[in-house]
Design goal:
With 148 residues, chain A is an all-beta fold. Chain A has a domain of 99 residues: Jelly Rolls. Helices cover 0% and strands 46% of the residues of chain A. The first copy, chain A, contains no helices and twelve strands. The radius of gyration of chain A is 15 Å and the shape is globular. The two termini of chain A are 13 Å apart. Chains A and B meet through strand 3, strand 4 and strand 11 of A and strand 3, strand 4 and strand 11 of B.
C-alpha cells in the first residue's frame, strides 16, 4: 500500500463554520479547481462495515463529501499511462476529518460505512448518472483487506 | 396562513432507491427544471427548535434537500408584483417527506430544526455565496409562530 496521492485525485480540507444554532459546512464552489461541471448531486448511505463498489467511471469526475457519519474510501489507479498506475489510496471522511475527495475518471472507487449510525456521502458529479460510462467489479476482484 | 404554493416555488418529491448496503437518495440533476446553474453547494445544520433566518436573496435560487433529520422551512413571498404576494408557505422536509424545495429570488426563508438529532440541509445554490445579494431580517420582524 503506497502513500503517494493518485494523480489528479484531490483531497481538500473544507471549512466548518461554527454557529450556536448549527454549523455551516462548505462543500464545493464553482470557482474551485475541483469543480469541472455540474451534472447531478445525489446522496449514498452505507451501513456499518458494508462496502459499495468497485466502480470506475469513464467520464464522470466525482466530488465526495461526508456530512453525516464516517465513510472509508479506497481508490485504485487503473490508468496505464498514469504516473501512479496501480497505486491505492485510502481516506476516511467524516466531520472530524471534513474534506472533499475529488476522483477523476479512470480510477476505481469503493467505500465502506464506518459508524453504527448513518453514514452518508454527497456526490457532486460532473455528469448525470449514465450506466454506460461506468464499469463495475466485484469486491473480491480487487485485493483489499476491508476487515481492518 | 394560506395554502397556495408561492409562485416559482417548486416542491419536488425525490426518489430514495433502496439498497441492502444503504440507500441512494436523489437530489438534483442538471436536466431538471429546478436547476438554474451551479454556484455553490453547502450544508447547514440546525439544532432542535432553533431557527435560522430570515434571509432573502436578490439573485440566488436555492435548491434545498434534507438528508439527515427534519427541517421546517417557512417562506414568505415579498415580491410586490407576484400573484402570491404576502403568501406564506410551510414545509417540513425529512427522509419520510423526502423532497426538494426550490426557492426563487425575492422570497424570504427561515428554517428550524425539528429533531433532537442532527438536522442538516443541503443547498445547491445557483450562485456562489455573496453577502451583497442577500438581505436579512430578525426573526421577530416577520410574524410567524415558531413554537407550534
Amino acid at each position: 500500500m503506497e502513500s503517494k496521492l493518485i494523480a489528479d485525485v484531490e483531497f481538500t480540507l473544507l471549512r466548518q463554520i461554527e454557529h450556536p444554532s448549527g454549523d455551516v459546512l462548505h462543500a464545493l464552489k464553482a470557482s474551485e479547481k475541483s469543480f469541472k461541471s455540474f451534472g447531478e448531486a445525489y446522496f449514498s448511505s452505507v451501513k456499518m462495515a458494508k462496502v459499495k463498489g468497485w466502480k470506475k467511471h469513464k467520464e464522470m469526475t466525482l466530488n465526495l463529501i461526508v456530512p453525516t457519519g464516517a465513510v472509508r474510501f479506497v481508490l485504485l489507479d487503473d490508468r496505464p499511462k498514469s504516473p501512479t498506475y496501480n497505486v491505492f489510496n485510502e481516506f476516511i471522511l467524516s466531520r472530524t476529518n471534513y474534506a472533499r475527495l475529488t476522483v477523476p475518471p479512470g480510477v476505481w472507487v469503493a467505500f465502506q460505512g464506518k459508524t453504527d449510525q448513518e453514514n452518508i456521502l454527497l456526490n457532486l458529479a460532473s455528469i448525470e448518472h449514465d450506466p454506460s460510462e461506468a464499469e463495475s467489479k466485484k469486491l473480491e476482484d480487487i485485493p483489499f483487506d476491508w476487515e481492518t
